[in-house]
Backbone:
């Protein structure tokens, strides 16, 4: 097989416990977002738009929906000859099934898959971030700087920097030090979980790491620090644009709200960089004469008979007469009963809320409704 310039591996196997009930039966990257999308649509669409033909999706927990979803490569234009999206669960061992032990181990277990496609470079992505990025620009930096590894970084408020992996660099963005969630960060350049590695070098490090019983087999804890201690060239690639880790209920709500409040930062109608998703064939939205809608993001198939303000209404949602929905995110197929009032709430997919129910969270603590609610 001819050598590929670069293939992508999307780490989509996290348990996602901080999303609470949304990930009880659904893998985090398959959680609904922004009306008709799922989180995994973003890295997959970025790959398609960046000209990456081969994408491996490494799944693990609650994989049924995610596996069936990403198997339809045509959604992202990755179904032509020589391209494809491949679902890669953990390997079955002689002694039984074993989960991926860490992010690096997930790649190690799939060395044979990568070698089959013989890439010069490997792009490693997280499956739970909302952003639009041209990975070709990242690769240009990697090649131009003659890097062994290139890491996309974004500036975050210094007060929030302790929540991230922080890259300390020189003036040429050569990484001098990597700190995982430092208590007293020295910079505000946060890792986006987007890496390019030169494959031959990375393969060597992965195989060595696999033999270390003391290793956690993780890129942030083990592989990147080892590159640095060996004097390898690691380059930070600054990213200018929208990026959000939607690993918590509040951050998922915030990113949905950004579609209303900061729509220019995350423009999902941009035809020059499409985010592709499943087309469920839903009919047009219906907003009745008795409805009132103020500053809302409403997708196809939604039927609005009540009052909606500053909310994201996903496809095939029903808001019945006299219902009041404020500052909330209604995921696909949910039904809001007559006279029901919601404020600062996320309603999970296909959940039904009875008539005349009042539910509210706060800006600091969004209320997740992940099961049917009766009177």
Residues:
């Amino acid at each position: 097989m001819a050598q590929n310039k670069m293939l992508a591996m999307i780490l989509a196997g996290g348990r996602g416990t901080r999303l609470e009930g949304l990930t009880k039966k659904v893998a985090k990257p398959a959680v609904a977002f922004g009306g008709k999308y799922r989180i995994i649509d973003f890295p997959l669409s970025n790959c398609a738009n960046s000209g990456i033909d081969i994408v491996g999706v490494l799944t693990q927990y609650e994989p049924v929906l995610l596996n069936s979803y990403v198997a339809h490569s045509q959604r992202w234009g990755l179904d032509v000859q020589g391209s494809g999206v491949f679902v890669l669960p953990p390997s079955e061992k002689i002694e039984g099934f074993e989960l991926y032990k860490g992010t690096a181990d997930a790649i190690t277990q799939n060395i044979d898959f990568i070698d089959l496609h013989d890439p010069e470079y490997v792009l490693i992505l997280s499956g739970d971030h909302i952003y639009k990025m041209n990975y070709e620009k990242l690769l240009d930096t990697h090649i131009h700087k003659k890097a062994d590894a290139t890491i996309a970084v974004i500036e975050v408020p210094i007060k929030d920097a302790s929540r991230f992996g922080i890259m300390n660099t020189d003036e040429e963005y050569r990484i001098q030090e990597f700190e995982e969630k430092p208590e007293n960060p020295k910079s505000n350049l946060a890792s986006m979980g987007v890496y390019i590695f030169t494959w031959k070098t990375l393969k060597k490090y992965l195989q060595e790491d696999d033999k270390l019983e003391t290793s956690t087999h993780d890129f942030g804890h083990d592989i990147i620090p080892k590159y640095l201690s060996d004097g390898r060239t690691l380059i930070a690639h600054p990213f200018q644009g929208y990026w959000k880790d939607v690993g918590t209920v509040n951050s998922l709500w915030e990113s949905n709200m950004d579609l209303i409040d900061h729509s220019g930062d995350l423009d999902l109608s941009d035809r020059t960089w499409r985010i592709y998703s499943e087309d469920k064939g839903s009919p047009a939205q219906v907003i009745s004469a008795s409805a009132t809608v103020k500053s809302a993001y409403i997708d196809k198939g939604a039927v609005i008979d009540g009052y909606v303000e500053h909310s994201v209404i996903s496809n095939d949602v029903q808001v019945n007469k006299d219902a009041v929905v404020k500052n909330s995110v209604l995921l696909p197929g949910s039904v809001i009963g007559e006279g029901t009032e919601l404020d600062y709430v996320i309603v999970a997919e296909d959940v039904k809320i009875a008539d005349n129910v009042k539910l509210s969270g706060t800006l600091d603590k969004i209320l997740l409704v992940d099961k049917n609610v009766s009177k």
